Recover the amino acids of this structure.
């Protein structure tokens, strides 16, 4: 697994252990004699003023403020203190000027399948916020389901450490939790992407991902299933207004050995859409692989969509119901509302094949009619 150190992030300010700060100050006096000589030996006046440097290394400053990482690194390197030891004494960090910070950070940062899953979320239901005043861009995750919303934050914390938001637990009510800029910057760096590369119509899966281990690749696919997947008794379908991204997801399925199809439609309103269908056999393989991944990384959780996949296996294994009772039930529902085959299948826990059989017969009998064929899923009603 790849790792990144705190100095690989951008514009970082930190708090360090006070006893380690004592060690730094003692080292300054032993090597340079005093802070002034240290300052003039290591820094140019246009980098920072002496008064700022002097105050940065005070305990009183450290207790109430975050200090620049790059200044500390220069001093630590000059004192020949191990950067790894220095890193282990960092208590918290954040982006310069940012309100949210990482408390009790996990350092160094290890790139796990959860990191790749977050990348998928940032494409699927994510947005990139580009603030003014030269601040770093960061990700927001638009998610109305509380389980998946909280899970997004927990995934971030499993990689980086506890996020201390200015408004604690705001994401329990807000529908868009944020990934702090200091953390978001690593996604841009690792995947070598720009803000525009996260636009829904432009996003792609980087080619090098296909050469990653199975767990890494699978985590990306699961991320898209959570954000964009529709599950019925026979398959998982992901529809995106980005044909090339759908083809990328198809390549992932191919690498993982899942049965799948990639399709498009000629319907005018959906001409730019692509559809990935993970077929029933592939869905079974995916679910078994997911269970192993979930056991290793519990934060990778399909939630209610995982439950729906499991339910779909049970539904499909039942014989297709062609009884008059089910036909009457479908007819009764369609007298009150317009629904598609998929919606009916989900409503009455039947396979799509079974629902189509009854829809076909009801159409022949003239009891129902096609209401709307302008959408991908046709609507029927009485």
């Amino acid at each position: 697994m790849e790792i990144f150190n705190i100095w690989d992030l951008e514009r970082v300010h930190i708090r360090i252990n006070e006893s380690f700060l004592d060690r730094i100050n003692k080292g300054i006096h032993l090597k340079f004699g005093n802070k002034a000589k240290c300052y003039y030996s290591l820094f140019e006046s246009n980098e920072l003023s002496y008064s700022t440097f002097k105050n940065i290394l005070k305990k009183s400053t450290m207790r109430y403020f975050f200090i620049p990482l790059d200044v500390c690194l220069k001093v630590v390197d000059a004192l020949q203190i191990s950067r790894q030891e220095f890193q282990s004494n960092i208590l918290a960090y954040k982006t310069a000027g940012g309100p949210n910070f990482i408390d009790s950070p996990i350092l160094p940062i290890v790139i796990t399948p959860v990191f790749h899953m977050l990348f998928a979320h940032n494409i699927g239901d994510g947005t990139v916020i580009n603030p003014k005043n030269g601040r770093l861009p960061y990700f927001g995750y638009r998610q109305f389901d509380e389980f998946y919303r909280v899970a997004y934050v927990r995934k971030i914390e499993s990689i980086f450490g506890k996020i201390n938001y200015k408004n604690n637990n705001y994401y329990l009510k807000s529908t868009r939790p944020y990934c702090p800029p200091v953390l978001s910057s690593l996604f841009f760096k690792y995947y070598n992407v720009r803000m525009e590369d996260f636009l829904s119509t432009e996003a792609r899966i980087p080619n090098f991902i296909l050469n990653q281990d199975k767990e890494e690749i699978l985590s990306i696919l699961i991320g898209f299933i959570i954000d964009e997947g529709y599950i019925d008794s026979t398959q998982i379908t992901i529809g995106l207004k980005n044909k090339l991204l759908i083809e990328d997801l198809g390549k992932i399925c191919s690498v993982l050995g899942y049965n799948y199809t990639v399709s498009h439609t000629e319907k005018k309103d959906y001409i730019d859409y692509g559809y990935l269908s993970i077929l029933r056999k592939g869905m079974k393989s995916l679910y078994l692989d997911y269970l192993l991944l979930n056991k290793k990384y519990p934060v990778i959780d399909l939630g209610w969509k995982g439950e729906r996949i499991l339910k779909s296996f049970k539904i499909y294994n039942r014989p297709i119901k062609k009884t008059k009772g089910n036909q009457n039930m479908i007819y009764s529902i369609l007298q009150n509302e317009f629904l598609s085959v998929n919606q009916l299948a989900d409503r009455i826990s039947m396979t799509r094949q079974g629902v189509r059989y009854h829809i076909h017969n009801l159409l022949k009998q003239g009891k129902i009619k096609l209401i709307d064929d302008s959408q991908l899923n046709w609507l029927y009603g009485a």
Observations:
- The chain is about 50% helix and 15% strand.
- The CA atoms of residues 264 and 274 lie 5 Å apart.
- The longest helix spans residues 280-296.
